[in-house]
Amino acid sequence: MKAQRLEEIRPRIQALEAMPAVPAIVLPLTAMLHSPDQVDVEKVIDLVSYDGTIAAHCLRMANSPLFGRRNTETVRSAVFALGLKRIEAILLGCCLNRIVPPDKWALDAVTFWRHSLGCALVSRKMAKLIGYPDPEKAYLAGLLHDLGILVNIIACSEDYPRCIQAAREAHVALHRGEEEHLGFTHCQSGKILAEQWHFSSDVIEVIEFHHDVAAVPTCGPLVSLVHLSDLLCRLRDLGYGYYEAMGMDLAGDAAWATLVGHYPALATMDLARFTMDIDGAMEEIVAVVDAVFKP
Ligand SMILES: [Fe+2]
Ligand SMILES: [Fe+2]
Question: What CA–CA distance (Å, rounded) separates 41 from 31?
């Protein structure tokens, strides 16, 4: 690992905070996430209403069957239908989308957000299935897990196409291409920005360890949950837009063992049934993701 290279780009990552579109919305939002009791609903409705893209995004989500609501026509009713935590996650997603200048998207933007939103929805579904107490936290962690890819696209714009190309040609995960051509991965660079933006410690842990669950210091269940959701998405056509040669043995995955450690009832869970439940939801999730990103 070329640690020196990560140190070289650290100032560039830290400078992202100074980009004009970012702090105005992202920082107050993350502050709200830290103290949900102080969220001002009217402020959120205003924020959503001011921004056409975000408003449309919220309406599409609120009207999707996945959120159990149809015919939502106003931003106000969309905010109430979705709930504040989801609205915050959507806002955060939209804001992050804007930190990448349009001409810098080395990875197709729609592909990236389909993967992130897909992972958010699968994480939430899985959280409910296993009894994880905060499904909306799982949603947020799923949405943000690949934050470092955005960081790398911006901070390493010259080298990033080579990372993608190498991973695509070898049919391996994107972080392998990053290791080869950058000397660090989106897990490390994402952690730097997530700390800079004061994300909660469990979300930072997901960003840092979602490709290496065995290294998680706290052995928290959230990283394992998002790790499995990420794999499921990449196996079900919600990956990075190219074929990855990989399989999934749920029972043999270290992340599943961690989850069983936290939720012993999972040890007796019918895995075939569990996979079928996730697969059943996947079709709907792909439809929602496509509806959200329809031009
Ligand atoms: Fe990743
Ligand atoms: Fe991912």
Answer: 14
Nearest to 278 by CA among 238, 232, 237, 211: 232
Q: What is the pTM of this model?
A: 0.81
Instruction: Look at the alpha carbons of 44, 111, 175, 164 in this order and tell me if their dihedral is positive or negative.
Output: negative
Confidence of residue 280 (pLDDT cuts 50, 70, 90): confident
Q: What DSSP letter does each residue of 75-98 carry, written as one string?
A: HHHHHHHH-HHHHHHHHHHHHHHH
Cα of 39 to ligand 1 centre, how many Å?
30
CB atoms within 10 A of CB 130: 22
Per-residue pLDDT at 24 exceeds 70: no
Burial (CB count within 10 angstroms: exposed 0-12, middle 13-18, buried 19+), residue 181: middle
Q: How far is the CA of 146 from the centre of ligand 1 (A)?
A: 5
What are the pLDDT digits (tens) for 96-109?
777 777 788 888 88
Amino acid of residue 249: D
- Domains annotated for the chain, with CATH where assigned, are 3-18+103-293 (1.10.3210.10)
The predicted structure's pLDDT at residue 20: 44
Ligand 2 centroid – CA 85 distance (Å): 21
| Location of structure tokens 């800079």 | 196
